[in-house]
Amino acid sequence: MELRDYIRILRKSWVLIALLTLVGVGAAAGYSLTQTPQYSATARVFVSTQGSGSTSELQQGSSFTIQRVKTYSTLVNTAIVLLPAIGALDLGITSDELASRVTASAPIDTSIIGITVTDTDPVRAAETANAISQSLTAVVEEIETPDADSAMSPVKLTRAQDATVPSTPISPNVRLNIALGAIVGLALGIGIAVLRETLETRIRNEHDVEGITEVPILGGIVFDPRARDRPLIVHVDPRSPRAESFRTLRTNLQFLDVGRTDRSFVVTSSIESEGKSTTGANLAIALADAGSRVLLVDADLRRPKIAEYMGVEGTAGLTDLLIGRADLDDLIQPWGKAQLFVLPAGQVPPNPSELLGSARMSHFIGEFNRMFDVVIYDTPPLLPVTDAAILAKNVGGAIIVVAAGRAQKNQLRGAIGALDNVGAPISGLVLTMLPTKGPDAYGYGRYGYGYGYGYGDVETTAATGAPTPRRARAKRAKVRT
Q1: Can you tell me whether residue 408 is helix, strand or coil?
Q2: Please, which residues have CB within 8 angstroms of residue 366's CB and are 6 or more apart in sequence?
Q3: What is residue 406's predicted lDDT score, i.e. its pLDDT?
Q4: Buried-exposed string 55-80: b where 16+ CB fall within 10 A, e elsewhere
Q5: Which of 229, 334, 338, 392 is the most exposed place for a label (fewest CB within 10 A)?
Q6: What residues does CATH 3.40.50.300 cover in the chain?
């Protein structure tokens, strides 16, 4: 993944990441509040040798003391030292229980022993540390004293620092716990977001398509919640973003396959309900508005939709033409004020694949190319049946419609493979149902237009083949007045 991919994931999953971060903070805060505060108090004991002598004797005594310090520090957690402290303070616990609260430290090359006691009661922690240091002093003196009554211990332990009552607990560290909780929650949220994106199989944007195939993306059709109620958006609402998407697609299609003389395309998809029929119909209208002589053929002989969308008679059509039951001139119906003609599918035959792959269909494909500037064939999806692949091979170009958020990556791979298997050329892809908001939003300007331009009107588009900027229209209106 590139940096932009991670940024897109963060933008897309920021709610999840923020929620898990707050959960981490809340869990850390709850844990801290449920913990009993622990206080720590430290007493320090200084270890020295008794007696006087030459400098060399003092140095030897110092070395002896440092070595003894390591030994004495291990005595701190033994019963011989802890039991007198327990009895003096009447703690009512065993030496093992007290040992779990006591730590002894002896810094390297020093004669200091630090005795630290942790307790829920700050006063008791200080008193226990002082009692243990006093007990250690007595135990060492007893251990180091020779058997002779008149002899004196060569080592002396002196309390260098009494433990004081702590004012603040050492745990729980609320700030540290909350910070760690936030970090853990943030890392967990980012990890889940990246994992979810990695395991995501649906196609959501053009970047997902680019990771599957090098086939060019001709354009993107933005999502319209009212698409079912108004499938032919180019004339119904010509200033809408969706209508402008089809005009941009038309413009890009004019530069596609420049070397191919026949401007005919099969419009298909990998699965159903990806918007291929509405894409083909609106593209045909947009091409006719630009001045082209266009034929829209409903070659979906299984579930025809074009007659319903275009509002024409669909009882007779392509099926009747292929079986010789009617002539071409009797079946083609004009639509609208521009040079747009519609050939419905007609009756659903029992053998649609055979009809579309027949020699008679190949003959009429040539006739359509001769009679019209552009021919658009609406066909069934590629994965369920082979109709579109068979027809695309003869037509010479296929446009695959991919619905964002609906089509799976493996389905698009299968659709492309179905066309490659029969040697049908793929002219390009069209993304439909693209969101207009969020990190996967359709980027105006990526396919040739931006917010500085209006959505175009039919008259201007028909004359120039491209939308007219708002400023240009305003300036022209001012001159006319």
Answers
A1: strand
A2: none
A3: 85
A4: eeeeeebeeebeebbeebbebbbeee
A5: 229
A6: 206-480
Edge to edge, the sheet with strand 155-161 lists: 102-105, 112-119, 39-49, 155-161
- For domain 206-480, give its CATH number from 2.70.20.10, 3.40.1030.10, 3.40.50.300, 3.10.180.10: 3.40.50.300
> What would the two tokens of residue 44 be?
């320090």
Q: Count of CB atoms within 10 A of residue 436's CB?
A: 12
263-314 pLDDT, tens per residue? 899 999 999 989 899 999 999 999 999 999 999 999 999 999 999 999 999 8
CATH class of 39-161: alpha beta
- Taking the C-alpha atoms of residue 323 and residue 328, their distance in angstroms, rounded to an integer, is 12
Give pTM, 2 decimals: 0.62
Kindly write down the DSSP assignment for every residue of 156-197, as one continuous string. EEEEEE-----SS-SB--HHHHHHHHHHHHHHHHHHHHHHHH
Helix (H, G, I), strand (E, B) or coil at 437: coil
Domain limits, CATH 3.30.70.1130, in the chain: 39-161
Q: CA angle 154-159-161, nearest 5°?
A: 150
- Reduced to 3 states (helix: H, G, I; strand: E, B; else coil), residue 367 is helix
Which two structure tokens, joined as six digits, stand for 17? 């990441």
Distance CA 449, CA 466 (A): 10
* Nearest one of 236, 250, 237, 221 to 461, comparing CA atoms: 250
